[in-house]
């Protein structure tokens, strides 16, 4: 099983951050299905201030390209992504249209 770590920032606004957290306490079933159907077996998101860190554990069937393609074709996922973008902001290192950025692993015990 592979593990990936990604990061993204939220807009610095306490009310928006609380709303974002509330959405993640009630993630839509279609979103959960799109995650597990892609080969993601475990996904966790952590928050510090306005910085998000996502840890994904994936099986051998997972690929970022296939997940991205499936997400673009899924109306509910696009609806969710549009909603979440109201709370999120791209990192300075992000390419145009890029949200979550894959982090480089620099140490492992």
Describe the model.
The protein is α+β, with helices and mostly antiparallel strands and 109 residues long. It has a single domain (2-93), classed as Dimeric alpha+beta barrel (Alpha-Beta Plaits). It is built from four helices and five strands. The longest helix has 12 residues, at 14-25.
Quick recap:
The chain is an alpha+beta fold and 109 residues long. 39% of the residues lie in helices and 28% in strands. Strands 1, 2, 3, 4 and 5 form a 5-stranded antiparallel sheet that branches.
List the keywords.
single chain; 109 residues; alpha+beta; Alpha-Beta Plaits; five-stranded antiparallel sheet; 28% strand
Secondary structure blueprint with pairings:
Layout (H helix, E strand, L loop, with lengths): L1 E9 L3 H12 L3 H9 L2 E9 L2 E8 L5 H10 L1 H11 L2 E2 L11 E2 L7
Antiparallel strand pairs: 1-3, 1-4, 1-5, 2-3
Mean pLDDT across all amino acids: 97
- CATH-level-4 superfamily name: Dimeric alpha+beta barrel
- Under the CATH scheme, the architecture is 2-Layer Sandwich
Q: What sort of overall outline do the alpha carbons produce when their principal axes are compared? A: globular
Through-space gap between termini: 17 Å
- Tell me the name of the CATH class: Alpha Beta
- Largest sheet: number of strands, sense, barrel closure: 5 strands, antiparallel
Total DSSP E strands: 5
| Order of SSEs | EHHEEHHEE
Helical residue percent band: 25-40%
């Amino acid at each position: 099983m592979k593990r990936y770590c990604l990061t993204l920032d939220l807009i610095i606004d306490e009310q928006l951050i609380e709303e974002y957290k509330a959405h993640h306490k009630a993630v839509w079933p279609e979103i959960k299905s799109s995650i597990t159907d892609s080969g993601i077996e475990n996904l966790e998101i952590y928050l510090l201030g306005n910085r998000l860190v996502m840890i994904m554990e994936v099986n051998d069937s997972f690929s970022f390209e296939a997940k991205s393609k499936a997400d673009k074709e899924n109306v509910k996922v696009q609806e969710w992504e549009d909603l979440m973008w109201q709370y999120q902001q791209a990192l300075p290192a992000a390419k145009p249209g890029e949200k979550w950025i894959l982090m480089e692993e620099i140490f492992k015990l």
